[in-house]
UniProtKB/TrEMBL annotation:
EC number: 2.8.2.-
Pfam families: Sulfotransfer_1 (PF00685)
Gene Ontology molecular functions: sulfotransferase activity
GO cellular component: cytoplasm
Main localization (coarse): cytoplasm
Natural source organism: Mastacembelus armatus (zig-zag eel)
Superkingdom, natural source: Eukaryota
GO biological process, one term: catecholamine metabolic process
Name this polypeptide is given: Sulfotransferase
InterPro entries in the record: P-loop_NTPase, Sulfotransferase_dom
Domain Sulfotransferase: 35-280
Keyword annotations: Catecholamine metabolism, Cytoplasm, Transferase
Cellular location(s): Cytoplasm
Family: Belongs to the sulfotransferase 1 family.
Length: 287
Protein backbone atom coordinates (compact mmCIF):
# COMPACT_ATOMS: atom_id res chain seq x y z
CA UNK A 1 0.00 0.00 0.00
CA UNK A 2 1.12 3.55 -0.72
CA UNK A 3 1.35 6.81 1.21
CA UNK A 4 -2.07 7.81 -0.17
CA UNK A 5 -3.65 4.64 1.31
CA UNK A 6 -1.99 4.70 4.72
CA UNK A 7 -1.11 8.29 5.63
CA UNK A 8 -2.93 11.55 6.30
CA UNK A 9 -1.15 14.77 5.43
CA UNK A 10 -1.46 16.83 8.62
CA UNK A 11 0.10 20.31 8.73
CA UNK A 12 2.35 19.27 5.86
CA UNK A 13 3.64 15.99 7.31
CA UNK A 14 2.54 12.38 6.99
CA UNK A 15 0.85 10.77 9.98
CA UNK A 16 -0.36 7.15 9.92
CA UNK A 17 -4.15 7.36 9.39
CA UNK A 18 -4.84 4.21 11.40
CA UNK A 19 -3.28 5.66 14.56
CA UNK A 20 -4.34 9.25 14.00
CA UNK A 21 -7.84 9.51 12.57
CA UNK A 22 -9.25 13.05 12.13
CA UNK A 23 -11.06 12.96 15.47
CA UNK A 24 -7.85 12.28 17.41
CA UNK A 25 -5.97 15.06 15.61
CA UNK A 26 -8.87 17.38 16.45
CA UNK A 27 -8.80 16.15 20.06
CA UNK A 28 -5.14 17.17 20.33
CA UNK A 29 -5.73 20.50 18.63
CA UNK A 30 -8.31 21.32 21.30
CA UNK A 31 -6.41 19.75 24.20
CA UNK A 32 -5.88 21.87 27.33
CA UNK A 33 -2.53 21.46 29.04
CA UNK A 34 -1.84 22.08 32.71
CA UNK A 35 1.35 23.87 33.79
CA UNK A 36 2.53 20.77 35.65
CA UNK A 37 2.06 18.39 32.71
CA UNK A 38 5.16 16.60 31.46
CA UNK A 39 5.42 16.04 27.72
CA UNK A 40 7.93 13.60 26.23
CA UNK A 41 8.62 14.74 22.68
CA UNK A 42 10.48 12.61 20.16
CA UNK A 43 10.96 11.97 16.50
CA UNK A 44 9.86 8.30 16.17
CA UNK A 45 12.56 5.71 17.02
CA UNK A 46 14.57 8.11 19.16
CA UNK A 47 13.85 6.64 22.59
CA UNK A 48 10.15 7.31 23.28
CA UNK A 49 9.46 3.94 24.92
CA UNK A 50 12.58 4.28 27.03
CA UNK A 51 11.39 7.66 28.34
CA UNK A 52 7.87 6.23 28.88
CA UNK A 53 9.57 3.91 31.40
CA UNK A 54 11.98 6.37 32.99
CA UNK A 55 9.69 9.33 33.66
CA UNK A 56 6.86 7.43 35.43
CA UNK A 57 9.48 5.70 37.59
CA UNK A 58 10.99 9.06 38.53
CA UNK A 59 7.62 10.63 39.28
CA UNK A 60 6.56 7.68 41.44
CA UNK A 61 9.80 7.89 43.43
CA UNK A 62 10.86 4.52 42.02
CA UNK A 63 7.57 2.69 42.61
CA UNK A 64 7.27 0.24 39.68
CA UNK A 65 3.47 -0.22 39.93
CA UNK A 66 2.61 1.82 36.83
CA UNK A 67 5.30 0.31 34.60
CA UNK A 68 4.29 -3.18 35.73
CA UNK A 69 0.55 -2.80 35.27
CA UNK A 70 -0.02 -0.27 32.49
CA UNK A 71 1.02 -0.50 28.88
CA UNK A 72 3.40 2.25 27.89
CA UNK A 73 0.75 3.75 25.59
CA UNK A 74 -1.74 4.07 28.48
CA UNK A 75 0.84 5.01 31.08
CA UNK A 76 2.22 7.84 28.92
CA UNK A 77 -0.30 8.25 26.12
CA UNK A 78 0.44 9.90 22.81
CA UNK A 79 -1.84 12.93 22.66
CA UNK A 80 -2.32 12.68 18.91
CA UNK A 81 -3.22 8.98 18.95
CA UNK A 82 -6.70 7.48 18.75
CA UNK A 83 -6.58 6.13 22.32
CA UNK A 84 -6.13 9.60 23.83
CA UNK A 85 -9.82 10.39 23.15
CA UNK A 86 -11.00 7.46 25.27
CA UNK A 87 -8.58 7.66 28.21
CA UNK A 88 -10.31 10.47 30.09
CA UNK A 89 -7.06 12.42 30.23
CA UNK A 90 -8.90 15.47 31.55
CA UNK A 91 -9.62 13.51 34.74
CA UNK A 92 -6.10 12.24 35.29
CA UNK A 93 -4.51 13.63 38.45
CA UNK A 94 -1.51 15.94 38.12
CA UNK A 95 1.23 15.65 37.20
CA UNK A 96 0.12 13.98 33.97
CA UNK A 97 2.71 12.50 31.62
CA UNK A 98 2.16 12.49 27.86
CA UNK A 99 4.08 11.74 24.71
CA UNK A 100 3.94 13.30 21.28
CA UNK A 101 5.77 12.97 17.98
CA UNK A 102 4.54 16.37 16.81
CA UNK A 103 6.96 18.91 15.45
CA UNK A 104 7.15 22.20 17.37
CA UNK A 105 5.02 24.14 14.90
CA UNK A 106 2.34 21.42 15.03
CA UNK A 107 1.76 21.86 18.77
CA UNK A 108 -1.72 23.01 19.73
CA UNK A 109 -2.57 26.53 20.95
CA UNK A 110 -2.78 25.51 24.62
CA UNK A 111 0.83 24.30 24.58
CA UNK A 112 2.13 27.78 23.72
CA UNK A 113 -0.08 29.40 26.36
CA UNK A 114 0.56 26.98 29.23
CA UNK A 115 4.17 25.96 28.50
CA UNK A 116 4.28 22.61 30.29
CA UNK A 117 7.60 20.85 30.87
CA UNK A 118 9.00 19.11 27.79
CA UNK A 119 11.68 16.44 27.60
CA UNK A 120 12.94 16.39 24.03
CA UNK A 121 14.86 13.22 23.17
CA UNK A 122 17.18 13.20 20.17
CA UNK A 123 19.10 10.38 18.55
CA UNK A 124 21.75 10.13 15.85
CA UNK A 125 19.63 10.30 12.69
CA UNK A 126 21.60 7.48 11.06
CA UNK A 127 20.49 5.23 13.94
CA UNK A 128 16.96 6.64 13.73
CA UNK A 129 17.01 5.70 10.06
CA UNK A 130 18.30 2.20 10.86
CA UNK A 131 15.72 1.60 13.59
CA UNK A 132 12.94 2.98 11.34
CA UNK A 133 13.98 0.79 8.41
CA UNK A 134 13.46 -2.33 10.52
CA UNK A 135 10.34 -1.04 12.27
CA UNK A 136 8.48 0.08 9.13
CA UNK A 137 8.76 -3.47 7.81
CA UNK A 138 6.94 -4.92 10.83
CA UNK A 139 3.75 -2.85 10.85
CA UNK A 140 0.61 -2.96 8.74
CA UNK A 141 -0.14 0.76 9.23
CA UNK A 142 3.10 2.13 7.74
CA UNK A 143 4.23 2.07 4.13
CA UNK A 144 6.73 -0.78 3.71
CA UNK A 145 10.23 0.63 3.55
CA UNK A 146 11.11 -1.01 0.24
CA UNK A 147 14.78 -1.25 -0.75
CA UNK A 148 17.13 0.48 1.69
CA UNK A 149 18.33 3.06 -0.86
CA UNK A 150 14.74 4.07 -1.57
CA UNK A 151 13.87 4.37 2.11
CA UNK A 152 17.00 6.43 2.66
CA UNK A 153 15.80 9.03 0.15
CA UNK A 154 12.33 9.05 1.68
CA UNK A 155 13.81 9.50 5.15
CA UNK A 156 16.16 12.30 4.12
CA UNK A 157 13.33 14.05 2.26
CA UNK A 158 10.88 13.73 5.15
CA UNK A 159 8.47 11.48 3.24
CA UNK A 160 8.02 9.31 6.34
CA UNK A 161 5.79 9.49 9.40
CA UNK A 162 6.04 12.79 11.29
CA UNK A 163 8.06 14.35 8.48
CA UNK A 164 11.68 15.32 8.27
CA UNK A 165 14.02 14.45 11.14
CA UNK A 166 15.89 17.69 10.36
CA UNK A 167 12.76 19.86 10.63
CA UNK A 168 11.71 18.07 13.81
CA UNK A 169 15.02 18.56 15.61
CA UNK A 170 15.62 22.10 14.34
CA UNK A 171 12.07 23.16 15.21
CA UNK A 172 12.35 21.96 18.80
CA UNK A 173 15.91 23.28 19.25
CA UNK A 174 14.72 26.72 18.12
CA UNK A 175 11.69 26.67 20.42
CA UNK A 176 10.99 30.06 21.96
CA UNK A 177 10.04 28.56 25.31
CA UNK A 178 13.29 26.61 25.61
CA UNK A 179 13.53 27.30 29.37
CA UNK A 180 10.72 24.71 29.82
CA UNK A 181 12.51 22.17 27.65
CA UNK A 182 15.13 19.63 28.61
CA UNK A 183 17.16 18.41 25.66
CA UNK A 184 18.71 14.98 26.04
CA UNK A 185 20.00 12.41 23.60
CA UNK A 186 19.67 8.67 23.32
CA UNK A 187 23.46 8.53 23.19
CA UNK A 188 23.82 10.32 26.56
CA UNK A 189 21.41 7.79 28.05
CA UNK A 190 23.40 4.90 26.58
CA UNK A 191 26.64 6.41 27.86
CA UNK A 192 25.49 7.05 31.42
CA UNK A 193 21.94 6.11 32.32
CA UNK A 194 22.31 6.90 36.02
CA UNK A 195 23.52 10.40 35.26
CA UNK A 196 20.73 10.86 32.71
CA UNK A 197 18.07 9.72 35.21
CA UNK A 198 19.55 12.11 37.80
CA UNK A 199 19.40 15.04 35.39
CA UNK A 200 15.85 14.21 34.30
CA UNK A 201 14.75 13.97 37.93
CA UNK A 202 16.28 17.39 38.67
CA UNK A 203 14.57 18.92 35.66
CA UNK A 204 11.28 17.45 36.87
CA UNK A 205 11.99 18.87 40.34
CA UNK A 206 11.87 15.38 41.80
CA UNK A 207 15.34 14.86 43.28
CA UNK A 208 15.80 11.26 44.37
CA UNK A 209 18.12 9.31 46.66
CA UNK A 210 21.11 7.75 44.91
CA UNK A 211 19.84 4.22 45.54
CA UNK A 212 16.44 5.03 43.98
CA UNK A 213 18.21 6.45 40.91
CA UNK A 214 20.30 3.30 40.77
CA UNK A 215 17.19 1.08 40.85
CA UNK A 216 15.44 3.10 38.14
CA UNK A 217 18.49 2.99 35.88
CA UNK A 218 18.82 -0.77 36.41
CA UNK A 219 15.16 -1.34 35.54
CA UNK A 220 15.50 0.76 32.41
CA UNK A 221 18.49 -1.09 31.00
CA UNK A 222 17.65 -2.48 27.58
CA UNK A 223 17.94 -6.12 28.67
CA UNK A 224 15.52 -5.55 31.55
CA UNK A 225 13.02 -3.37 29.72
CA UNK A 226 12.88 -5.95 26.95
CA UNK A 227 11.39 -8.39 29.48
CA UNK A 228 8.64 -5.97 30.52
CA UNK A 229 5.48 -7.11 28.73
CA UNK A 230 3.98 -3.69 29.47
CA UNK A 231 6.69 -1.99 27.42
CA UNK A 232 7.90 -4.44 24.78
CA UNK A 233 4.80 -4.26 22.56
CA UNK A 234 4.22 -8.02 22.86
CA UNK A 235 0.54 -7.22 23.53
CA UNK A 236 0.10 -5.81 20.01
CA UNK A 237 -1.48 -8.36 17.64
CA UNK A 238 0.84 -9.68 14.97
CA UNK A 239 -1.45 -8.32 12.22
CA UNK A 240 -0.49 -4.79 13.30
CA UNK A 241 3.09 -5.34 14.36
CA UNK A 242 4.90 -8.50 13.40
CA UNK A 243 7.79 -8.78 15.82
CA UNK A 244 8.95 -12.03 14.27
CA UNK A 245 10.33 -9.77 11.51
CA UNK A 246 12.07 -7.37 13.90
CA UNK A 247 11.51 -6.85 17.59
CA UNK A 248 10.33 -3.46 18.80
CA UNK A 249 13.11 -3.41 21.37
CA UNK A 250 15.48 -4.49 18.66
CA UNK A 251 19.15 -3.81 19.54
CA UNK A 252 19.15 -0.81 21.85
CA UNK A 253 22.63 0.41 20.95
CA UNK A 254 24.25 3.55 19.57
CA UNK A 255 25.99 3.28 16.22
CA UNK A 256 24.10 0.37 14.65
CA UNK A 257 24.01 2.42 11.43
CA UNK A 258 27.53 1.15 10.82
CA UNK A 259 26.03 -2.32 10.31
CA UNK A 260 23.28 -1.00 8.06
CA UNK A 261 24.49 1.74 5.73
CA UNK A 262 26.96 1.22 2.91
CA UNK A 263 29.95 3.58 2.87
CA UNK A 264 28.37 5.48 -0.03
CA UNK A 265 25.03 5.76 1.79
CA UNK A 266 26.72 6.98 4.98
CA UNK A 267 28.70 9.58 2.99
CA UNK A 268 25.54 10.76 1.27
CA UNK A 269 23.73 10.94 4.62
CA UNK A 270 26.59 12.99 6.09
CA UNK A 271 26.54 15.42 3.17
CA UNK A 272 22.80 16.01 3.52
CA UNK A 273 23.19 16.31 7.31
CA UNK A 274 25.99 18.86 6.97
CA UNK A 275 23.94 21.00 4.64
CA UNK A 276 20.65 20.83 6.55
CA UNK A 277 22.25 21.32 9.97
CA UNK A 278 24.75 24.02 8.99
CA UNK A 279 23.07 26.74 11.08
CA UNK A 280 22.57 24.59 14.18
CA UNK A 281 24.84 25.52 17.09
CA UNK A 282 23.73 22.71 19.45
CA UNK A 283 26.51 20.26 20.26
CA UNK A 284 25.09 16.79 19.66
CA UNK A 285 26.46 13.80 21.55
CA UNK A 286 26.97 11.89 18.29
CA UNK A 287 28.99 14.57 16.42
P1 LIG B 1 16.61 0.04 17.93
O1 LIG B 1 15.63 -0.31 16.86
O2 LIG B 1 17.83 0.71 17.38
O3 LIG B 1 16.94 -1.11 18.82
P2 LIG B 1 10.97 4.55 20.08
O4 LIG B 1 10.54 4.04 21.40
O5 LIG B 1 11.11 6.04 20.02
O6 LIG B 1 10.13 4.00 18.97
O7 LIG B 1 12.46 4.04 19.83
C1 LIG B 1 12.72 2.67 19.69
C2 LIG B 1 14.22 2.47 19.78
O8 LIG B 1 14.63 2.69 21.15
C3 LIG B 1 14.62 1.05 19.42
O9 LIG B 1 15.93 1.16 18.85
C4 LIG B 1 14.62 0.40 20.81
O10 LIG B 1 15.35 -0.80 20.88
C5 LIG B 1 15.29 1.51 21.62
N1 LIG B 1 15.10 1.35 23.07
C6 LIG B 1 13.95 1.18 23.75
N2 LIG B 1 14.20 1.01 25.06
C7 LIG B 1 15.55 1.06 25.21
C8 LIG B 1 16.44 0.92 26.33
N3 LIG B 1 16.00 0.67 27.56
N4 LIG B 1 17.77 1.03 26.10
C9 LIG B 1 18.24 1.29 24.86
N5 LIG B 1 17.45 1.42 23.76
C10 LIG B 1 16.12 1.30 23.93
Amino acid sequence: MTEADLYTLYKGVYVPSYLHPPQSLKYYEEFTFRPDDIVIVTYPKSGTTWMQEIVPLIMSGGNPASVETLHNWDRVPWLEEHRACILNLERRPSPRIFATHFQYNMMPASYFKVKPKVIYVMRNPKDVFTSSFHYYGTTSFLVKPGPQSEFLHKFLNGKVMFGSWFDHVKGWLNAEDSECIMYISYEEMIMDLKDSVTRIALFLEKPLEAEVIEKIAERCLFKNMKQNKMSNYSAVPRDYMDQTKSEFLRKGIAGDWKNQLTVAEADYFDAVYKDKMKDVKYKFAWD
